[in-house]
Structure to design on (156 residues):
């Protein structure tokens, strides 16, 4: 289970919106010449508001631990990356073998990529699929977790 802490912004009928902070695993975001993630956070924001399942009935302002199953992340990654690339390669190979024309092969590759994106979107929109891929509130953050990962500006 992949876990992240956040603050509940709103809660309603079994779901909540939780504000989480994007962070790098290396811990060097404060360095001036880091990997560039800090620069991206500067332009696009360092926080994300996500919709999660709420089996605990939390209230706004509470600090919680949100989790996502590794299997769900793996399945979503394969759909988003694997389907478009797989369709693109399959159609490009078929066009190259059948037509032997570079321009038509490039067009077929682009069409395959677009078809793969469409297929990934259709897969994600299947009934019940959103519930499987949606993060869930696992628990309220304990006092020890809050002192290890302070985030005071989010309480305001």
């Amino acid at each position: 289970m992949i876990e992240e802490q956040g603050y509940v912004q709103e809660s309603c009928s079994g779901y909540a919106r939780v504000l989480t902070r994007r962070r790098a695993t290396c811990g060097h975001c404060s360095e001036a010449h880091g990997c560039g993630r800090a620069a991206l956070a500067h332009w696009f924001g360092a926080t994300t508001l996500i919709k999660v399942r709420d089996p605990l009935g939390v209230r706004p302002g509470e600090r919680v631990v949100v989790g996502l199953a590794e299997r769900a992340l793996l399945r979503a990654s394969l759909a988003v990356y694997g389907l478009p690339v797989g369709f693109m390669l399959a159609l490009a190979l078929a066009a190259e073998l059948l037509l032997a024309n570079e321009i038509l092969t490039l067009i077929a590759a682009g069409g395959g990529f677009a078809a793969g994106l469409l297929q990934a979107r259709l897969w994600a929109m299947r009934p019940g699929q959103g519930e499987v891929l949606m993060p869930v509130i696992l628990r309220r953050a304990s006092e020890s977790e809050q002192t290890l990962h302070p985030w005071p500006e989010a309480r305001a």
In short: The longest strand covers residues 2-12. The domain at 2-68+136-155 is CATH 2.30.30 (SH3 type barrels.). The radius of gyration is 21 Å. The beta strands are 2-12, 15-21, 47-53, 63-68, 136-140.
